[in-house]
Amino acid sequence: MSSVKITINNQTVHGNTRELLLDQLEQAGFHPEYQCRSGLCGVCRCHLLKGEVAQLDALALTGKNEILTCRTIPKSDVELVFSYPISCSEEA
Ligand code: FES
Question: Could you tell me which residue ranges the 2Fe-2S ferredoxin-type domain spans (predicted)?
Fold first, then answer.
C-alpha cells in the first residue's frame, strides 16, 4: 500500500492506494454526500483536478474530469473539488 495525499476543496489529508476514495474521505472526517455507494446514483460525484485514479465499474454518468468517489481508488496524490462546501471534522 502506498501513501498518497488527498486534497479536497483545499484541505489535505493522508490516504492510500488501496481503499475507495469515499471511504477514505469519511475516515479522514469528511462528510461527502452519497446514496448507493455502488456507482449507480452519481451523488458522490466530484471533479478530479490533479492526479491519477482507478475508476471501478459504475453505471452513473460522469462528465469530463468527474469521478465517482464510491467507485474510485487513488493511484497518486489527488486533488478533488466538490460542488458544495465540505469540511473536515478531524485534524489529519
Ligand atoms: S454514492 Fe451512488 S454513485 Fe457513488
Answer: 2-86
Mean pLDDT score, 53-71: 95
**Which ligand 1 atom sits nearest the alpha carbon of residue 58?**
3
CA of 4 to the centre of ligand 1 (A): 23
Q: Which residues contact 7 (CB under 8 A, 6 or more apart)?
A: 50, 77, 78, 79, 80
pTM of the model: 0.92
Residues with CB under 6 A from ligand 1: 34-37, 39-44, 60, 68, 70
Domain boundaries, position 67: 3-81
